[in-house]
Design brief:
By secondary structure, the protein is mostly beta strands. The protein has strands at about 1-5, 10-15, 20-25, 30-40, 45-50, 60, 70-75, 80-85, 90-100, 115, 120-125.
């Protein structure tokens, strides 16, 4: 069993920055894929960024490339999402998700992730 706890959301003006954290506990290992999803009201949950814990393989959605950075602190078993140059359209609930040994072909399919955090609200005002 894996537990994920997000923190770091909040209200920020357009152009500002936030850093989200996801503390993972339980049976995680280097095969795990860790992802950040977001869901805005009335929209489907979408993958923002993901990585495989053991490798340098990283994915970013086109809408956040060059603005968001996903990273890990292995010593703290924590996943981060640094969000810069935030836009009002980035407003959503952001979720951390994890799944062992998930093929990169399926990273953007939320239904396949076994473990989820509780979500953290990010609101960007214009």
């Amino acid at each position: 069993q894996v537990q994920l706890v997000e923190s770091g959301g909040g209200l920020v003006q357009a152009g500002g920055s936030l850093r989200l954290s996801c503390a993972a506990s339980g049976r995680t290992d280097s095969s795990y894929v860790m992802g950040w999803f977001r869901q805005a009201p009335g929209k489907e949950r979408e993958l923002v960024a993901a990585l495989r814990w053991s490798s340098g393989l990283i994915y970013y959605a086109d809408s956040v490339k060059d603005r968001f950075t996903i990273s890990t602190d292995n010593a703290k078993n924590t996943l981060y999402l640094q969000m810069n140059s935030l836009k009002p359209e980035d407003t959503a609930v952001y979720y951390c998700a994890a799944h062992p040994a998930l093929s990169s072909s399926y990273w953007n399919t939320p239904q396949l992730y076994a473990y989820w955090g509780q979500g953290t609200q990010v609101t960007v005002s214009s």
